[in-house]
């Protein structure tokens, strides 16, 4: 029996297997098997770990511009619209669901709800709900799960229209007519691919940032609602980075537009602060750790950060600089109205947690135990609006949600995700050099690209048979 091999049983692989099997069934090709090959002893284990076990499986508003290599992603998402129109998700369409990925899940029987910032979670609030509906649909469509099968090498067909050779670490060989490479993370580096396809170095992103422990150790485990800015001190290097990275340029322009005039000065549409060129801005919760900074806002900044950059934490995010100085000036007058003499510690009480207040005072050049005067308010405000933490790199790769890098998108057709130089070989998900921010975007890409690749692989086999 002829087959399509899906290499990797995570999000992209499961979506690809279901999509391929759907296309084959629609074409009446019961003679082709879809084999879902997973190195682990079960498929979908990585899905169960997402969203702290709740699985933030998508977002209510997904745009190509949210991703690295946005133009390529846009082509894939456009192709996905074509899949949806061809009848890939009847129930979802009849229910009025607009996004093709969401239609895909509606057809599988998943119910979901929307939380803050458009994050979509299964109604049951468990990742198992997402995995269960996908596996059940795969079973109904005849997908064969082959677990504990780690692919170590993929050889291209030796003759036109011939089979691939997929070699596994147990010595077995599978000879499918089409292959969808849906392996992510470290597994993407261990597969030997045809000579014209080489995976670039993978680097972990969407994770915590390492910083100067002398600054963060006293704040360990403190959570702070704040606005965070990522700046690159070397303005020339920053502008060169922006010129060569469309996503970084978009991030810097968006950050400049989101900041008030009191955050640096505008220059060519970008914003230059006292710490260099502003590259990205996030608002949310920062979690201080003894090694550095964590939290979703920090994770999103990590997509652009590199050693030598600085994260500026605004501990008074609800007020602009001038507004904060005016408000805190009035606060000082109220506190000394009865003749009280304030120390730095007294001044911070009721406004910031003691450890945070102490760091603000230190970066402002003020004393915690010494007297605090009205003339000290401006320096305190400036420090509180821009607590500086130098970036030393990623803190813990194991905590990172995705790996950046993988296969060069230029080697693949954005309409089908087929390798231009190796017909019949497709790629999806984290195998490709695409990543997005937190909030369901990376899983959305996994589903979307898996659907497109699986469908295209099946349609290629159907077309070849008819020819």
Describe the protein's architecture and organization.
With 467 residues, this protein is an alpha+beta fold. Helices cover 36% and strands 22% of the residues. The chain has 16 helices and 22 strands. Helix 1 runs parallel beside helix 16. It is elongated and about 90 Å long. The mean pLDDT is 92.
According to DSSP, the number of beta strands is 22
Largest sheet data: 9 strands, antiparallel
Average pLDDT across residues?
A: 92
Rg result: 26 Å
Share in β-strands: 15-25%
Number of helices: 16
The low-confidence runs, each spanning 5 or more residues with pLDDT under 50, are: none
Task: Give a quick rundown of the structure.
This protein has 467 residues and is of the alpha+beta class.
Which key features would you list for this structure?
five-stranded parallel sheet; elongated; alpha+beta; single chain; 16 helices; 467 residues
